[in-house]
Write a structure and sequence with these properties.
mainly alpha, cell inner membrane, cell membrane, cytochrome c-type biogenesis
């Protein structure tokens, strides 16, 4: 890669963000621990009957992972704003949308991917049927990047505010609901023995559209927030 090129800038940004996450790896484990704690509370609240837990297992896992992702969402651009590197990204000669896409990728790798890895453990804890687990993993692989892309747009709008946690949740949660509905619908269809490809196709379509539009919208929102 030629120094100063777009590919070199993206590689350097990804390396920097991964290094920062590694230095704060204790904080990076918080979403995983939160998801495990939330999922483990349901057997205590509803009882240990496997049939009852199996009916709600996929929905519980999806909600636990959605809420876990919110824990780190506000920090997506916050540290860059505090150390001044966010303004440098805006002034960089490379496309801002592409640089923000790299940051969103790192956020997904360090937040959502560990949650997907522990999903089989949560499935065993809640007695999820074995035939539902592959579909649940597929929905997570489609929905978690989509949630990161949607969340990045909302974070870019609120990054300039001092206390944006509650406002960010109010902006993000209504946009997360359709993703949750399609993901849970696919798992419920499998559990009921019905076709489940339609919700997966909708999630794939939403992800494809967001991959193109979300970085552009995040870049525009970030410029507005910093202006």
């Amino acid at each position: 890669m030629r120094p100063g090129s777009t590919s070199a800038a993206c590689a350097a940004l990804i390396k920097r963000d991964l290094l920062l996450v590694w230095r704060r790896r204790g904080d990076a484990l918080n979403p995983v621990l939160f998801a495990i704690m939330v999922a483990s509370l349901f057997p205590f609240a509803l009882g240990p009957e496997p049939e009852q837990l199996a009916r709600i297992a996929s929905g519980v896992i999806l909600v636990a992972l959605l809420l876990s992702g919110l824990l780190t969402l506000d920090a997506l651009f916050r540290s860059d704003l505090e150390d001044g590197s966010l303004e440098q990204l805006v002034l960089a000669p490379q496309p801002l949308s592409l640089l923000l896409g790299c940051k969103i990728l790192v956020h997904w790798l360090t937040t959502a991917l560990p949650l997907i890895v522990v999903t089989p453990l949560l499935a065993q804890l809640l007695h999820l049927p074995e035939n539902v687990l592959p579909v649940l993993l597929m929905t997570l692989l489609l929905s978690t990047p989509l949630l990161s892309l949607i969340g990045a747009m909302c974070v870019a709008l609120t990054v300039g505010m001092r206390r944006s946690g509650m406002l960010l949740s109010l902006l993000v949660l209504p946009l997360y609901v359709p993703v949750l509905i399609f993901a849970a619908g696919a798992c419920s269809a499998v559990q009921a023995g019905l076709p489940h490809t339609a919700p997966l196709l909708w999630l794939g379509a939403g992800l494809s559209l967001s991959l193109v539009l979300a970085p552009l919208a995040s870049a525009a929102a970030l410029k507005i927030s910093l202006s």
